[in-house]
Write a structure and sequence with these properties.
Elements lengths: L1 E10 L2 E11 L3 E6 L6 H9 L6 E6 L2 E2 L5 H8 L2 E4 L11 H12 L4 H14 L15 H12 L6 E5 L7 H18 L2 E5 L3 H7 L2 E6 L2 E6 L1 H4 L5 H7 L3 H12 L9
Parallel strand pairs: 3-8, 3-9, 6-7, 7-8
Antiparallel strand pairs: 1-2, 1-4, 4-5, 9-10
């Protein structure tokens, strides 16, 4: 579990995060949603230590990350996995070498053990037999699955995903969503996903936080999204006129719960 308490972040006179408190639960897919510029990415960067909060606490199972020294933070980061928007694979490395990279850097395993672990992770994301391929030989969806395999190679307690469906078609996005969801439940990981994808919100949003202009505007689960009376949330979700008309029709028929994107 990750808990943030009264988290604030300013850049000079500009306050980007404003007194945010939230709990991200273990074994659940926790989603952060909001418009571009709302503060989602800054929030993620504060959680993983790429930025230092101006105020507040970030608690990893009760351990205050903000108050840790450099050595303690480095130790905790070994419990984190990260999936970047672009997959961020090394083009000059094979698929197997990409997945082994964190193991080479941070584990005390033998070479044989590292290879076995990497192949186990590739099997888990349905990429058996891709060991000797290079990222450029794979589709975008397959590259994202390699990134997931790499992120779970060290058995992380905490998994951070920055727009994991960016650039993917709807069918492939669904595959990535379901993979993240199943891995989260299987290993009891605290998974935090920064996303604009409303299909992800409705499909795997077990805990959703909506950020608006740097503060937490709304919190709930996917089943509560469509029926929310929070205007800022509904304006964000139903950004197009077509979706607004569809929602209006569903509400008139009393079928809000069955309306999906």
């Amino acid at each position: 579990m990750i808990e943030i308490k009264n988290l604030c972040k300013s850049f000079g006179d500009k306050e980007v995060l404003k007194d945010i408190s939230a709990v991200f639960e273990s074994g659940k897919t926790n989603l952060i949603i909001g418009q571009s510029g709302s503060g989602k990415t800054v929030l993620i960067k504060n959680l993983v230590g790429l930025l230092e909060p101006t105020g507040g606490e970030v608690l990893y199972d009760g351990r205050n990350f903000v108050a840790m020294d450099k050595k303690e933070k480095a130790s905790l980061r070994r419990e984190m996995g990260m999936i970047f928007q672009s997959a961020a694979l090394f083009d000059s490395m094979t698929v197997l070498e990409n997945v082994m990279f964190p193991l080479d850097m941070f584990s005390s395993m033998t070479l044989r053990e590292r290879i076995h672990r990497a192949r186990t992770c590739l099997d888990r994301v349905n990429l058996t037999g891709t060991d000797h391929k290079f990222p450029g030989e794979l589709s975008g969806g397959m590259q994202k699955r390699v990134a997931i395999a790499r992120a779970i190679s060290l058995n992380p307690k905490y998994l951070f995903c920055d727009e994991p469906n960016s650039g993917l078609d709807p069918k492939t996005s669904l595959v990535i969503d379901q993979l993240l969801h199943s891995i989260t439940h299987e290993f009891g990981i605290t998974t935090i996903i920064n996303t604009h994808d409303m299909n992800s919100v409705m499909g795997i949003g077990e805990n959703i936080i909506f950020i608006y202009e740097g503060h937490k505007e709304w919190e709930g689960v996917s089943a509560q999204v469509m029926g929310s009376d929070n205007k800022r949330l509904t304006d964000f979700i139903f950004a197009s006129d077509l979706l607004k008309k569809m929602r209006k029709a569903a509400l008139e028929k009393g079928k809000t719960e069955s309306f999906t994107l």
